[in-house]
Amino acid sequence: MSDNTLQYITKAQADYARCIDDDRLEEWPSLFHGPCLYKITTSSNYRDGLEAGIVFANSRGMLSDRVSALRDANIYERQTYRHILGQPSIMSEDGATVQSETSFMVARIMQDGDTTIYATGRYFDVYEIADGAAKLRERTVVCDSSRIDTLLALPL
Predict the structure, then answer these.
(1) In this structure, is residue 155 part of a structural domain?
(2) Which of 30, 115, 132, 138 has the least CB density, counted as fewest CB within 10 Å?
């Protein structure tokens, strides 16, 4: 592992969390590299190798469409998230491609101030490192619980 790999991944993780937590969702797709994959699934589906996900997008265009739908089409109670991230673990590195795993916890804050632990789990990521920065090629969000709130609106 190069000396800077963990630093690039840690910065990319922090940028990702701030983008969502600060409601800068229009910037979210730019954190992904070209053709990409983003999905949210449960730990049991992931463990059993089931591809079905709660959310699935396989291009930056699909990520942008999701943001447009959140802003303009979907009706849901406005909410914000606060991400708490663990230290990324570098699982493998092959040239500019890095696989990592990071634990997360997301608190959801509703308009009335009610705050709950919304989701916990792990990010299984594939990053592309270029020009001194890491961008996601794949992010599989694996939620610990199989009970997913139907109000899953914002990206995790």
Answers:
(1) no
(2) 132
